[in-house]
Amino acid sequence: MASIFETKSNVQFKLELEARQREFFKALSRTIWTIEHLRQGRLLHRQILKNLLLTEGANFAVGLLFGNPPPTAISQWYIALFENNYTPVAGDTYATNGWTEWTAYNETQRPPFVVGAVGGGAIDNSANKATFTANATKTLYGGILLGGGTAAATKGDEAGGGSCYAAVRFNASRGVQSGDVLKVTAIAQISDDPT
After folding, report:
1. pLDDT tens, 115-138?
2. Cα–Cα separations (whole angstroms), residue 113 to 56, 87, 91, 128, 145
3. Cα gap 24→13, rounded to integer Å
4. Is residue 18 classed as helix, strand or coil in its secondary structure?
5. If we measure between CA atoms, which residue out of 127, 124, 143 comes closest to residue 182?
6. Which residue, 115, 149, 166, 181, could crosslink 161 as a Cys pair with Cβ 3.0–4.6 Å?
7. pLDDT of 47-65, one tens digit each?
């Protein structure tokens, strides 16, 4: 029987190996998002969904754990939302992606992802949800977990050299109007049982 090296080019083999490594890491790592949409203090809608782990995020995490030398750790992550009808793909990055970030909210910066203690292989911001207060009518389609670089807190920044860990498309788009509040909780988890 021919070996894989004899039947496939080295480039094809490398691409397949990288794809399998990404799938393996995705099976171990995920982020669960809860999106709450409030109007005048009343909950209109809640949805819970799983993210797409971006290749940029997987590379950063694996490099941080096993890299020699590892990349510089990111001390603060942020949550952003996007306003175009886009489905994130694994190849989206901080600088090159298909989403249009939503910036029509009162907060002056992207809300930080402020986490509690690690426990059970997970960490989350449930005690300090990322909060967005809309100041215009928009339809929102998803979210992004990002950080690093020189301007990760800046709304709409794509040139600051940061990293995107994960992105998620909402199960149902959310139409917001001025004064509406969106609260976002994210649970970052690594587990040998991703169910």
Report:
1. 999 998 889 999 999 999 999 999
2. 18, 22, 23, 8, 8
3. 16
4. helix
5. 143
6. 149
7. 999 888 899 998 898 888 8
